[in-house]
Design brief:
CATH architecture: 3-Layer(aba) Sandwich
Strand content: 15-25%
Number of domains: 1
Distance between the termini: 12 Å
CATH topology: Restriction Endonuclease
């Protein structure tokens, strides 16, 4: 990775999780054409920091994002942090999202966003604990965010 990318990664990594969600991830989803992007972080988030809605022919596609400062060199050896992340990702899948039409819906996709590079070991641990969930967890790690 070149020096400019290292500077940008360092800047992303210096943000608090809520700031990363609101100042980077939310605008990213808005720029990708989501017609509604809600910051949902905080104490009662239910694993969902961002909820993004995209128009689709057969109904809205709903993506939920869990933002976590985890990855290479950051807390990947701490089983409590990994366990908490797995719990929050499970909440993303299992907790329905209330819609504006009075109905509820499970998300169509779950995304883990982190300012750090996520290696294959952490990915294997995450996916190993989420077997049987509807969809896989997609990843937006630091290097991918810079693309």
């Amino acid at each position: 990775m070149d020096n400019n990318n290292d500077v940008y990664l360092s800047a992303l990594q210096s943000l608090k999780e809520d700031d990363l969600s609101q100042r980077v991830i939310k605008p990213l989803f808005e720029s990708m054409g989501c017609y509604r992007v809600d910051f949902h972080g905080g104490a009662y988030e239910g694993g969902k920091d961002i909820i993004a809605y995209t128009k689709a022919p057969l109904g809205d596609h709903i993506s939920v994002v869990q933002t976590k400062k985890i990855g290479d060199g950051k807390a990947t050896g701490d089983k409590n942090i990994i366990g908490n992340l797995i719990f929050q990702l499970q909440q993303c899948y299992l907790k329905d999202i209330p819609l504006h039409n009075g109905k509820t819906k499970k998300p169509d996709s779950v995304i883990l966003a982190t300012p750090y590079k996520v290696g294959s070991r952490l990915l294997a641990e995450i996916h190993g604990h989420l077997n049987g969930m509807k969809n896989e967890v997609k990843l937006l790690d630091g290097p991918y965010l810079l693309e």
